[in-house]
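Duplicate of #3305? Posting structure anyway:
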C-alpha cells in the first residue's frame, strides 16, 4: 500500500511539474535553471550525508548511497553546463559590430 501511495505522489508531482514548467515564459527559463541547480546541490549534500551515515557493513546501502551521490553530482554539473550554454546565447558576438 505504501508503494502505491508513493507511486501516486510521484505521478502527481511529475504532472504538476510538467504543467508548471510548460507555462513559464521562455525568458524565465535561465533563472528557473539556476533555481533547479540550487535544489540539485541540496540533493547532492543530502546524498552525501546519507552515504556518510550508512552502516559500513551493509554493502547495499553503501552502493545505493554512492549511486545517489554520483547521480546528484552529475545532475548538478549538467545543470550548470546547460545554464552556461543558455547564458552564452544572450551574449553578443564581436562579428555583429
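Output from current build:
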Amino acid at each position: 500500500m505504501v508503494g502505491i501511495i508513493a507511486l501516486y505522489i510521484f505521478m502527481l508531482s511529475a504532472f504538476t511539474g510538467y504543467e508548471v514548467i510548460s507555462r513559464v515564459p521562455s525568458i524565465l527559463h535561465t533563472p528557473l535553471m539556476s533555481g533547479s541547480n540550487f535544489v540539485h546541490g541540496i540533493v547532492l549534500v543530502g546524498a552525501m550525508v546519507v552515504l556518510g551515515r550508512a552502516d559500513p557493513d551493509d554493502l547495499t546501502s553503501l552502493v545505493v548511497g554512492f549511486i545517489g551521490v554520483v547521480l546528484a553530482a552529475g545532475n548538478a554539473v549538467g545543470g550548470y553546463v546547460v545554464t552556461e550554454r543558455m547564458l552564452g546565447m544572450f551574449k553578443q558576438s564581436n562579428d555583429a559590430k
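Confirmed duplicate; merging threads. The mean pLDDT is 85. The two ends are 64 Å apart (CA to CA).
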